[in-house]
Amino acid sequence: MHFHPSERIALFIDGANLHGAARALGFDIDYKRVLDLFSSQAHLIRAFYYTALTEDQEYSPLRPLIDWLDYNGYTMVTKPTKEFTDAMGRRRIKGNMDIELAVDLMQMAEHLDHAVLFSGDGDFRRLVEVVQRKGVRVTVVSTLRSQPPIIADELRRQADQFVELLDLEEDIARSPGYREDRGE
Asked: Which of 34, 39, 55, 118 has its CA 20 to 30 A from that of 46?
C-alpha cells in the first residue's frame, strides 16, 4: 500500500462484502488491527463500517461485533433489513448499504486526500470516478484470489490502487483464541 504519512484518509467498509471476501479466503478480520495498520500509514480521519441488521430477531450474531466496533473507533452505519417475497414466491431479505456508503464518501471527499474502500462491488465504480475528480485518491481492498473473484473488474480498473485482501492477511487477520466481545 502506498500512503503519504500526512495524507488524510478514511476507511469505508462494506461489511457484508468484506466479510464474504475474508471468509472466501479462509480468515477472519481483526478490526483493531485494521485501525492500527491504517493509522500507522497515514492520518486516519474516520473509519466507517456499513451493515444491515435484522431487527425482528431477538439476538443477531452481528451484535457483538457491531457493539465492539462502535466502542472502538468505528463510525457505525446500520439500517434494518427489509423482507419481501420475490417473483417465485420465496421470502427474501434485502439489506443493501450502497447508498449510505456513497453519500458518506461524497460528503467526506472534501476533507480527505485518500479514501480506502473495502468492497468489490462494481456498483461503486462510478462513485470512485466522481470522488477521484474531486482530487481524492481511492484505494480499493478486495480479492481476485477467491473463486469466483469478489472484486469487479471495472472497480479494480477505476481505483488508483488495488490491494489484494489476501496480501493483508498477516497484518489484519484475527489470531487464534481471539474473543470478539473483548476485541483481543
From this structure: 55
